[in-house]
Design brief:
Helices cover 0% and strands 58% of the residues. By secondary structure, it is an all-beta fold. The protein has a single domain, classed as predicted glycosyltransferase like domains (Thrombin, subunit H, Beta Barrel), CATH 2.40.10.220. It holds the Pfam family PilZ.
Length: 99
């Protein structure tokens, strides 16, 4: 198979969360990342909007992402903006600041 990607990918396979809006989240696996995009695996991509926030459970990073392509259980996205650090509060769980 010929590799057509312009950037090298780093395999991650780490848990994350997709924030659709202030009331809906979807757990996911961040499969890999490159300088130009991120591949995310989740049970179903049909209900995801074209723009969403992706958070990384291990680092607390939160990115505004734009869908570049979709398959039934994977979505490729481009990170547009770093939102904020993902804050973990022991009593209330993760919180994100919307600016």
């Amino acid at each position: 198979m010929i590799e057509r990607r312009a950037e090298n990918r780093t395999r991650l396979n780490i848990p994350g969360m997709i924030l659709i809006d202030e009331h809906r989240t979807v757990p996911c696996i961040i499969a890999d990342r490159s300088a130009t995009g991120i591949r995310v695996t989740l049970p179903n991509t049909e209900t995801l909007p074209d723009v969403f926030i992706l958070t990384f459970d291990d680092t607390g990073e939160a990115l505004v992402c734009r869908a570049a392509w979709r398959k039934a259980d994977q979505i490729g996205c481009i990170a547009d903006v770093l939102v904020t650090a993902w804050l973990v509060q022991s009593s209330r769980g993760p919180q994100v600041a919307w600016h």
